[in-house]
Every structure is written in structure tokens, then in C-alpha cells.
Amino acid sequence: MSKWVYSFGDGAAEGTRQMKELLGGKGANLAEMSSIGLPVPPGFTISTEMCAWYDRHQQSYPDALTGQIEAAMQKMEQSVGAIFGDSQNPLLVSVRSGARVSMPGMMDTVLNLGLNDLTVEGLARRSGDARFAWDSYRRFIQMYGDVVMGVAHHLFEEALENLKLDKGVDLDTELDEKDLRDLVEMYKEEVERTLGKPFPQDPQKQLWGAISAVFKSWKTDRARVYRRLNGIPEDWGTAVNVQAMVFGNMGESSATGVAFTRDPSTGERAYYGEFLINAQGEDVVAGIRTPQHLTIKAREAGKSNKPSMEEAMPKVFGQLVGIFETLEGHYRDMQDIEFTVQDNKLWMLQTRSGKRTAKAALKIAVDMASEGLISEDEAVMRVDPAALDQLLHPTLDPAASRDVLTIGLPASPGAASGHVAFTADEAEARAKEGEAVILVRVETSPEDIHGMHAARGILTARGGMTSHAAVVARGMGRPCVSGAGALRVDVKTGEMTVGGRTIRRGEMITIDGSTGEVMAGHVPTLKAELSGDFAQLMAWADRARTMAVRTNADTPHDTETARGFGAEGIGLCRTEHMFFDGDRIIAVRQMILAEDEAGRRRALETLLPHQRQDFAEIFHIMRGLPVTIRLLDPPLHEFLPREEKEFAEVAAVMQVNPEHLRRRALELTEANPMLGHRGCRLGIAYPEIYEMQARAIFEAALHVGEQSGETIIPEIMIPLVSTVAELAFLKERIDAVAEIVFEEKETRLTYLVGTMIELPRAAITANEIAGKADFFSFGTNDLTQTTFGISRDDAGGFMPLYIDYGILSRDPFVSIDQTGVGELVRMGAERGRSTKAEIKLGICGEHGGDPASIHFCHGVGLDYVSCSPYRVPIARLAAAQAALEAKAALEGGKA
Ligand code: ADP
Ligand code: MG
Ligand code: MG
Q: Of 349, 352, 355, which is best to mutate to test ligand 1, by the most ligand atoms within 8 angstroms of its C-beta?
């Protein structure tokens, strides 16, 4: 016969904390607390399997359930010394829902179940406190009526409020027995009036009604929506806990409260919580009366004159503190606790690992390891890498007031204040004057890069989480709010309007890229704290991980930032951004629009010293560490002039007719540029471009090597290769340039030539390509685009729908699609290694900074991941967790 019911109480339990799947989180922990001897009111848990059974059988129950519940009920009755439904000495229970993880949307708890017109009198006589009995009864009708029977909550509230008005009192506690009797009558009438049937008097009916209500609540729309948003499977189901009541509403020596064993917002080792004297259950959070602090210290900090629990109930408080210690020692984590005091006796009603801010998670993990409660490896496992994001950027001072104009998408975390600039040039010019600037655009494009760099933050009216603004801002570590749709930007008049308000050029605004808020004026920020606990946890993480973490950086500034965050080299240095910088773009345009090779070479001559300088600075900052430089990748037309003025500018320099240039520009236009003349195809059509870049790299590396005395090992990376022949063609030319430069300088250096694996054909033929490559870097952005055949820039139209419908569980541009794109990565790695065992393997797409993708990369056996500077610490932690998990799995497998 199946077992559906698990009892707990009196220092024993049939369940354990490991049984969360079966008993739900609340039930498993009640059982655990009971077994370790903590004072838990006795009760039983109906397992989550019953939830599925109930559903499969048209909302009915197996015959065996009744007997099991009766037996468990009898056990409770013996333990408490009262009988369920007895008119002289009634046992009352609570009915509480409880899934594996706590879940809003589930049925609210019903307290004081078992009361009716007869048992309430018995309770009054036994307790010697009629007011308490009637207070419990009116609470029960209100809760059961609302939660189980569906009578609108406010109907009860109104009756209560009216009564208090009539009596001229403010608080529920000021109502006397007679008032509460009247209230019960009113409540019962309310139920009859609304439902056309009386409030159930039979305690058995009440019990089964409440149990069924819990199981039904698993299927409500509210619960479904929550599950979908949080990825909780439908088939988990909820458990039901039935537990003997203890009463916090029995006068001045009774109370109810909630507590954390450490401060959940700072992580400080200070008990934190609230309690209310003469109250029940949800009164503390309901805000009917202002709750009191637990400790003297907290009361003083909160400037409250109401006594803390430490003062009002010193003995019970002492016991509670003892239990905090026991629970932390037992669970080895910060606990979130619910308790009740009945006539100076303490009862535990719930414990679970407490939710906490990123800051608190970090502090608690490091503190607990230092206290010896957990190991350093466990501390590494305790912090969510994604949450570190909050800590790496400045945040808004929570105490400051905010004048919120609108809310857009939280596209790149961190907060910044600055004067509004509407063009990139203006942003750059103002920043040069030392002003803090927020660049506001309808949307950004590659030409805005310099302005984005100069700005403290970026705000756009259009574009999603993977728009140009969002991706570039994240890469640069600039806060960004994108897609603020309510915003009207008028570059001509130099103003933006939102919600009937106008902000003019130069006025101050503040954006919070972690929440999407856009605010008027300056809001003070708090700086990121990267020493102390943060540094300690990172040190433990670095010891645990096996993959290296590099960064994607194209500028000295980003390189510096990344090194500060612990990057162990550059995995991707794009060279195209360098082409936009300052006056270079004119030379670049000259090169593109030139009629012949000679013309191109002339323009490239002008670019060479600039490129050399760029590389030298980056090599210098990263000295001692590897630097991978990708040769020019984007389609040339991205660099072309757009406006009249720009055509005229280039034409003047080239001494040709602007009309002629426009024709040439037209020739370069492509129907599908992302699959067009770009990547290594450019290098093959115009070898002189890659030759110039290779020369700049070698000259810079030799120069910095000589100056710093450190060996610089440049890694030259060819983009968009699909066949080994492309790579062979280009490698031969790069090697030839190397020889020329080495002869000129009369020294040599070691360098690597490798390729991106970012096209399916490259992954499939990786065994061939490896013959010509020293390393592979998986470019999973393009690999995702080309594997799915989805353009990242255009996915915004349907991707949210795909996620919503569950067609894709996550955006594959954010977290790697392990079964499809990931399989190509795995294949590429395996085939590459089959040809060249020592080939270096890394990843450099946006995925390099995504914890789930990093886990995947560890599994595939990549040597390193590369991500934007601000994600470096996240990647270090995620790589450590992946290594520790793999180790644990291996040891588990052996055992
Ligand atoms: P939630 O999951 O919403 O926290 P709970 O089932 O934990 O709901 O119940 C909420 C509150 O009700 C508890 O914190 C506790 O104060 C009170 N409560 C629940 N069961 C009992 C009980 N058997 N005796 C006294 N109070 C109870
Ligand atoms: Mg609770
Ligand atoms: Mg690419």
C-alpha cells in the first residue's frame, strides 16, 4: 500500500530534510526540526505525490488516504492531549501548503481549523480565556471563508472595520469577547449571503475542504504563471501540512514572529527579525500593527520605543537565540525562521535557507568559511555568479529619493548620473571638458562607439536586451537602459520628452541599468567594493577552477579594467572599433573606396602607425599574458560614409568627385551583409588589409617585448573561416609578413595563428582546419546565428514569443543552446584535438560570460573562456563552480 502521510512531532519524524521532493520544503524541514529535538507542534505532511494523484483522478482521493490521515490525527491528539472536533477539549490545526520551493500563488495557510459554534465554547472553558477563543474563531472563519470558500477578503475586512468604528477603537486587540462574538455572527452571515450556504460546522468537512483547496491551488493561473516565469515543472506538485495549533494570541505572554539568523541585506552576523505580542500568524507581515524588533540593538538602530523581544521576553528570546545557533550549525546556512510563543513557551513553525542580497550572500559565505561552518569550496558554491553583477557596478544609494521619469529595459547593469547629450560627438566633446555625460539616442549604431565610450551611461528609446546599445554597453561596462519606449527624442531641438515632461540638452539625469529606471536629476551612487570578502572569495574560486578566464577587450581602458578584474589575457581583441577612432575613419574610407590595390595600400600606410600604437598599448597592459587579436571582420560597407558631409570629406582627401564615391559605395552594398563579403573573405580579396594588420601586430609585439623585457606572444585570429584552404591561404601571407618584419628588426618572436570556429562547416571540418591552426576560438555569436539561421539583430521580433511559448527555454544568444550549437562546439573541440592534441581551445562569444554556458564549456574541456571585462569575476566564479561540481560528481560516482 502506498504511503501518503508522514507524521512529525515529539522529537521524531518519518521524514527528513532530504525528502523535499516528497514532503515539500516546509514539510521536510518541519520533520527535520522535529527529529533534532526542536519544539515543533506535532502534525503530518500529505506528500506531493497525492497532488498528482488527485489531479489524475478527477479531484478524488485513494481510499487508503482516509485511514492514514485518521491514524496521523490520533497521534497528534495523543501528543497534544486534545481531540479534533471534541466539544469539551478540541484540538485545532493549521493547514499549510508547501511545494519543493516556496511559491507565491499557492494557497494561503488556514489557522484555527476545527472551530465551530460548539468547540469554540470548549476552547473558551479549557483556556479560561473566552476572548482568545472567539478571536481564534473569527480569524478562522475569515481565513477559511476567503481562502477555501472564495468569499472576498474585503467583505470580512469591512465588517471588522465597521465594528471598530462603532466601538471607537483602533486595534483588533481592543475588541472584547462580546465584540468578537458579534463579529463571528456577522462573518457567518456574510458567508451565507455570498454563497447561499452556511459556514461548515463539521470539523472533518473543514479539514478535507482545506486539503483539497491546497491541491487545487497548484493549478490556479497565478501558480501557473509563477511556475512558468521561474522554470518550475508542473509535475512537482505541492504537499499539504496539517499541524496542531499553538497560539500566539493568548495574551501578553504570547507572541508570533519571523527571524533571520543573519542580516539578509548586509550579511552582518546579527539576528534580524520582527515579532508581535498577542498576535497570530500573518499579523506580523500584514501591517495591521507595527511589529517590534527582536534585539535591543535593532530597536535602537530603528529608533523605536516599543520594547524588543530581548527586553519583553528575555527568557524566550534566549531560547530562540539558542535555536538560531542550532539551526545554523545543523543546516550550515543562514536560516529564515517563523516562530510562535504560547504563554511563554517557544514553538518553531518553519525554517528554510534565507533569501539574501548578493552582498549578503558574499559576506555570509566568506564568514561561514572563516567560522569553520563550511569549507572554502562550499563558500565558492554558495554565491550565484550572476548575482555578482550587482556588486561590480556602482549602485544607487537606497536611501536617496528618486524622481522616476520612465522605466526601460535593464540592459547593462550599474547606475550613473550625467548631463544629457543627444549625439556621440556632443557626448565626446562634453566628456573632454570633464563633464559626466549620459548619451541619449533613439538607438545606437557602430558610429556612436566613441560617444558611448565617453559617456557614463547610455539611454535608448528603441532596441531590446541584445540591441547594439545593450551589447556594446555591457562590453564596455557602461550602465545602459535600452528600449525606454515612452521616450521621445528630438535631436534637432535638443530635447527629450517623457510623460509630459521635457528634459533639455545638458540637463542632469540618472539611469539605473540594473532596474531600467530613468530618473530626473542626480541620484547619489555607492561605489563597488572589490576588496575584502570579494577578493577572498575570488581567491578561493581561482584555486578551484581549471579553465582560464580571458577578456574581450579592444581598448587600453577595457584591457586595464579586465586585468583589474583578474583577466588572464585577451581572448578577443576586435580591430574594427579601432577603425572608427578619430580621423582614422577617413583613411579607412579612402582604403575601401580606392579603385585599385595601389590606392588601398596608400591608405593602409596611414593606418599602420595607428594600429601599431593600439596594439602596443594593449600588449603593454597585458604583458606576460596571451593576447588574441582578430583581424578585420565586419563587411566593409559598415565603414562607408552615410551623409553628404562625410562623402565630401573623403572626396576632398582623395581628390575625386563625391559622385564617383557614391557610385562605388553603392557597388559595395550587399543584400545580406552578415553572410556577405566579410571575415576572412575580406582578407582573401584584399590581402593587403590583413598584411598591414599583421605587420602592426608584429612590430608592436617586438617593440613592447624589447621595452618591457617580457616575452609577448601574439595570437593572430582569422575570422569566419569555413574551409581549411581559406586559413592556409591567409596563414601563408601572415607568415611571410612575419619573416619580413623579423628580418627588418633582426629579431624574432613566437606567435600563433589560429581561427574562429563560428560557422557550422568549420566545426564539422575542424579536424582539417586544426592542421593549419595553433588555436580555435569558438565564436558562438555567429555560430548561433548560422546554426539556427537566425539573425541576432532581428530576433527581437519573435524571440520573446519563443520563450513565452516554451519553444526555446532560453534565448540562445544569451545562454548557449547546448543540444544544437553546443554539439557543434563539442564536435569542433573533439575533431580539432584528434588532429592536434595540444591545440588551444577557447570561447569568445557573449556566452563566455554566461554561467550556464561556462559550465558547458568546462564539460567540453575548453582551455579558457573569454568575456567582457565586467563579467570576468562572474566567469571566474562560474568556472570554479563547474570544476567543483565535476569533481563532486566524479567522487560521487566512485563512492
Ligand atoms: P507561508 O508559506 O505563507 O509562510 P505558513 O504555512 O508558513 O505560510 O503559515 C504562515 C504563518 O501561520 C506561520 O508563520 C505561523 O505564524 C502561522 N502558523 C502556521 N501554522 C501554525 C500553527 N500550527 N500554529 C500556529 N501558527 C501557525
Ligand atoms: Mg511560512
Ligand atoms: Mg563572428
A: 349
